[in-house]
Automatic annotation (TrEMBL):
Coiled coil: none annotated. It comes from Pseudodesulfovibrio nedwellii. Residues 209-398 form the HDOD domain. It holds the Pfam family HDOD. This is HDOD domain-containing protein.
Length: 419
């Protein structure tokens, strides 16, 4: 069921991380793609020319499972000072935002590209964190200014917003780590938002869980109960019409490859077996908890982690848990964000391994370390991920290959669940 790596991935060992960008309604407006060439130097971002890096981003978008959905914006990053010409960019720029940061943000480089990008239907974005005189000269040429929220106090953000009062374009708040910062930037008039904030819970403990979320938590508990037998499982699934429909739809998809159509849960239990059906029913329930755009992105992250960590056991030395348990570690690592509820309370009635549960709840153990490794990879921080990978005798190149395979697999599974 895994997706095959592309030829480009095998040759370049690219690690492409997809990071969503939200609008003011918490809908996904576009995606930023962080590209690392881990073969160049393990743990260090790509150190080749900008021409190579841009070309790799374009190829990665079209060949791997992290592709940009139709109608969403694609942020193409240019960071170095080497000249880029229009021919390196995608032919169709309708949904492309060319973002310049670091040494690339200079008047000559931006002037060179701004007109060509606009003529091609694209937009130009620049980072705020450049020299003041350079930025001032570029404001009339760019459509978006990206402002990092990292290490900035509220007063600094307010002052920055005032500075751009006359700017005719849009402001993008980047590196947002929590919902408080998101709400603050939104209140100040920022239009777009990027960061890890969407993957942390908007805690609403005082309000309690909605009845639908309570029901799904109960289902998760029953599905993972070791005492749940075949008849019990068939009864549990069949009692929820929506769940029953989605599971049958998924099992009849290309991922499972059955030649004849499976028409009942009882038939699914007989063909797949108790353990397998519990496994995939849990996946369906988890991905169905939050159907908002934010929830869909969190579900993608959870399932991607699950697939990668289940494969990690075959790549590494020293992982004590079987692949099925590692799959559940990844899958449940975003349960609090899906429910907007504290992890400890969300897991109360789900019979997971005690050490895995402790890691999910923040205890400093092996499983928490693996979650930290996933967080570093998702942030595009290979240096931090590499330190954890070395404990398991796994290098970044092997990790990148499996991560990209897992991305392809996850996109395929979610697509087939939704069809």
């Amino acid at each position: 069921m895994s997706g095959d790596p592309t030829v480009a991935q095998e040759q370049k060992q690219l690690l492409v991380v997809k990071q969503p960008i939200f609008d003011r309604d918490k809908s996904v407006w576009g995606y930023r793609f962080v590209v690392n060439d881990v073969m160049a130097r393990e743990g260090v971002e790509h150190d080749g020319s900008d021409v190579e890096l841009v070309a790799e981003q374009v190829v990665s978008m079209s060949t791997c499972g992290t592709g940009c959905p139709i109608g969403k914006k694609f942020f193409l990053s240019i960071t170095g000072e080497s000249p880029i010409d229009r021919s390196v960019l995608p032919e169709n720029l309708d949904n492309c935002i060319v973002t310049m940061s670091g040494k690339a943000v200079n008047d000559a480089q931006c002037s060179h590209l701004a007109e060509a990008i606009g003529d091609g239907g694209g937009s130009l974005a620049v980072d705020y964190d450049v020299e003041g005189d350079v930025l001032e000269s570029l404001l009339e040429k760019c459509d978006i200014v990206k402002v990092s929220m990292a290490d900035k106090r509220p007063a600094e953000i307010v002052a920055l917003r005032k500075k751009f009062k006359g700017f005719q374009g849009k402001l993008l708040a980047a590196n947002i780590d929590d919902w408080e910062t998101y709400e603050g930037a939104r209140a100040l008039g920022f239009k777009y938002f990027q960061g890890s904030f969407f993957g942390v819970p908007e805690l609403k403990e005082a309000e309690g869980l909605q009845s639908t979320s309570v029901a799904k938590l109960q289902l998760l508990g029953e599905l993972n109960n070791p005492d749940c037998g075949m008849e019990d499982l068939a009864s549990i699934i069949a009692s929820d019409i929506s769940l029953s429909y989605r599971i049958l739809q998924y099992i009849n998809s290309a991922s499972f490859g059955f030649r004849t159509q499976i028409k009942s849960i009882q038939q699914a239990v007989a063909l797949l077996g108790l353990k397998e059906l519990k496994h995939w029913a849990t996946v369906v329930v988890m991905t169905d908890i939050d159907s908002t755009p934010k929830g869909e992105e969190v579900a993608y992250t959870a399932l991607h982690r699950a697939r990668f960590l289940s494969r990690f056991t075959e790549m590494s030395n020293g992982v004590s848990q079987p692949s099925e348990s590692m799959f559940m570690l990844g899958l449940f690592s975003k349960l609090d964000a899906l429910l907007s509820f504290p992890m400890e309370k969300a897991l109360e009635n789900i019979p997971l391994d005690k050490e895995i549960m402790a890691g999910l709840c923040g205890a400093a153990n092996e499983y928490r370390g693996l979650i930290r490794m996933m967080e570093a990879v998702e942030a595009g921080n290979c240096a931090v991920a590499s330190k954890i990978l070395k404990r398991y005798d796994v290098n970044c190149a092997a990790m990148a290959t499996e991560y990209m395979k897992a991305a392809t697999w996850t996109s395929q599974q979610l697509s087939e669940m939704q069809n």
